[in-house]
Structures are given as C-alpha cells and as structure tokens.
Design brief:
The chain is an alpha+beta fold and 157 residues long. The protein has one helix at residues 6-54; strands at residues 56-58, 64-66, 82-87, 94-95, 117-122, 128-137, 143-150. The protein has one domain: Beta-Lactamase (2-Layer Sandwich). The protein is built from one helix and seven strands. The longest helix is centred in the first third of the chain and has 49 residues, at 6-54. It is elongated and about 95 Å long.
C-alpha cells in the first residue's frame, strides 16, 4: 500500500490544526461575548436599582411610595421584561405595572448592610429573571426590600 504524498499529509495536518484553532477561538469569543453582555446587564440593573432607591419616599405613618416611576416604557407594559418590586414586612407590596398581578419571591431576603444580592428566578409569564435585590432602612424603620429584575426573551439562566 502506497503512502500519501508529503503534500497531502501536510495539507491534512494543516487542515486539522486550523480547524482546532478556529474551534477554540470560537468558544473563546463566545465566552467573551457572554461575559460582556452579563456585565452590561448587571450595570444596567444596578443603575435601575439605584434609581428606584432614590425615588422611594416614606411618610410619617411609615407608608412607602414611589415618587417618580421609571421613564422606560418596559416598566409600564405588562410582562414587558423589566420589573421592580418593593417589599416591607406587614405592608402592601409595591411593584411596577409590568409585573401586572405577579409577585416575585426571593429565596433569601437580603439584610441591611449586606449590599446587593443577585438571583436567577422564574418570573411572570414563564420568563427567566435576573434579579438584583438589596435591603435598606429608612430612619430606624423596619427593613425594606427593593429589587430590580430583567427577564423576557433574553434567555437568562
């Protein structure tokens, strides 16, 4: 049996290594892109949570209200993919219009001073949510839990 020529062997070897390098590069680019998108979403949710915190007011009776809702229409459209919710023990849950009649339940509530916690939870209408939640205290009052969520067709898992 005759062996293939040197040219054919080099061509086969070059094709193999080129395919290997392109495959590894493709996986690397996918990982970098995924990390960039995740960082962008985290920054956006963090900014939205800061905006929500700055718009919360507490009256003398300890009732919480939101003085200026988000301008982003996705927070107003039912199941629009952007949500916010404010929970306080013994008080009515405040939530964005986009949550409709759904309430998001966190597996573990954040505590005041712990900073922001991130959760991946099921959301309304079968959506998958990336949730940022934090706890804040208003002038010696009970802890209030605030969260900002993003979900929808983005396929966040």
């Amino acid at each position: 049996m005759q062996r293939p020529s040197l040219r054919v062997r080099f061509l086969a070897l070059a094709t193999f290594f080129l395919s290997l390098v392109l495959g590894i590069s493709g996986f690397g680019l996918i990982a970098l892109f995924e990390r960039a998108v995740t960082n962008l979403v985290d920054k956006e949710l963090s900014a939205n949570l800061d905006q929500l915190i700055s718009s919360v007011e507490v009256d003398e009776a300890g009732q919480i209200s939101v003085k200026s809702p988000f301008l982003d229409l996705r927070y107003h459209e039912p199941y629009g993919g952007r949500y916010w919710q404010i929970s306080k023990p013994g008080a009515k849950v405040l939530r964005s219009r986009s949550l409709w009649d759904t309430e998001i339940t966190l597996p573990k509530s954040p505590r005041a001073g712990e900073g922001t916690k991130e959760f991946k939870l099921p959301g309304p209408n079968g959506q998958k949510l990336l949730v940022l939640a934090t706890a804040i205290v208003f002038s010696g009052d009970e802890t209030t839990e605030l969260s900002s969520q993003k979900g929808g067709a983005s396929g966040m898992e």
